[in-house]
Amino acid sequence: MRILLTNDDGIYAPGLRALRSELRKLGEVTVVAPATEQSAAGHSVTLLTPLLVNEVFDDDGKTFVGWAVEGRPADCVKLALLELLPDPPDVIISGLNAGSNAGINVLYSGTVAAAIEGAFYRQTAIAVSLEYDKKIYDFPRAAHYARQVIEQILNHRPPPGSLFNVNIPVLERGPIRGVKVLPQNISPYTEKFDRRVNPRGRTYFWTSPDFNCPDPHPDTDVTALAEGYITVTPLQFDLTDHAKLEPMKKWTWKLD
Q1: 180 lies in some domain
Q2: Is there a domain that residue 204 lies in?
Q3: Other Cβ atoms closer than 10 A to 56
Q4: Angle between the 139-155 and 14-23 helix axes, to the nearest 10 degrees?
Q5: Is the distance from CB of 195 to CB of 205 less than 8 angstroms?
Q6: How would you class 144 by CB atoms within 10 Å of its CB: exposed for 0-12, middle for 13-18, buried for 19 or more?
Q7: Domain count of the fold of the chain
């Protein structure tokens, strides 16, 4: 099996390293990932500057790992599929992200955006993230669970272009209770900014890391994560509100 591995935390992120180690049990892994952290980059792509690419090797200095790209996660997948890989991958994996990408975080996430980019090109793509609780991440153990979930998804032979979002709960809270397939939570999150003044008297803001969902809908990815379940959510990138299409076609449109 040929596996393309990417992320938004950067090619040297410990989550990617841990997941690469596990995915090598399934097949040949090639990494094409951002050279630097691109968290919350969403589905942005680089248009006005060149995409510099460098080969990356393992700690032994000899084993080829893949390419570091001076760009966004979506750039990495585009380049991998159109320029860098000699053959198309059998699956695209994005992760292992430091921090969950559940609920509306999906819309901001560079991790999920990289998977979506793969699905654009009719590849099976899976985004994988580990929930954050301000403690040390146990990436190796989370990658072990991630690999098992990925393997089971692939065993069901999803059709080309299938897209999945996997989130692993904080492992320090206790044993994993199982896997649940649930929809994305769409309840709003609370956000705060830390207002400060620099030595020159200019006001500036830091985004607070306390980004939480105080009232999530029941039976969604956010609630199941909090209960200790791994969540799997099938996604689609068609944003059309199909329920409104037919009624709107009956509107009378007027132009001056």
Answers
A1: yes
A2: no
A3: 16
A4: 50
A5: yes
A6: middle
A7: 1
Asked if the structure places residue 195 within a domain, the reply is no
Kindly tell me the burial class for residue 169, based on how many C-beta atoms sit within 10 Å of its own C-beta (0-12, 13-18, 19 or more). buried
The token pair at 144 is 């072990």
Yes or no: say if 170 and 231 are a contact pair by the CB < 8 Å rule: no
Q: Which two tokens stand for residue 106?
A: 């999906």
Which SS3 state, helix, strand or coil, does residue 17 take? helix
Name the strands in the sheet holding 91-98, side by side, starting at the edge strand that comes first in the sequence: 53-57, 64-69, 28-34, 2-6, 91-98, 125-130, 163-168, 230-235, 179-181
Dihedral angle at the C-alpha atoms of 192, 198, 201, 205, nearest 10 degrees? Answer: -20
pLDDT digit string (tens) for the chain, length 256 residues: 999 999 999 999 999 999 999 999 999 999 999 999 999 899 999 999 999 999 999 988 889 999 999 999 999 999 999 999 999 999 999 999 999 999 999 999 999 999 999 999 999 999 999 998 777 789 999 999 999 999 999 999 999 999 999 999 999 889 999 999 999 998 877 788 899 999 999 999 998 777 677 778 889 999 999 999 999 999 999 999 999 999 999 999 999 9
- In this structure, what CATH number is given to the domain that contains residue 229? 3.40.1210.10
Burial of 119 (0-12, 13-18, 19+ CB in 10 A): buried
CA distances to 74, 192, 196, 197, 207 from 201, rounded to whole Å, are 38, 22, 9, 6, 19
- Domain contains 20: yes
Which domain covers residue 236, as residue numbers?
2-185+216-249
CB 184 within 8 A of CB 220: yes
Identify whether the C-beta of residue 77 lies closer than 8 Å to the C-beta of residue 141.
Answer: no
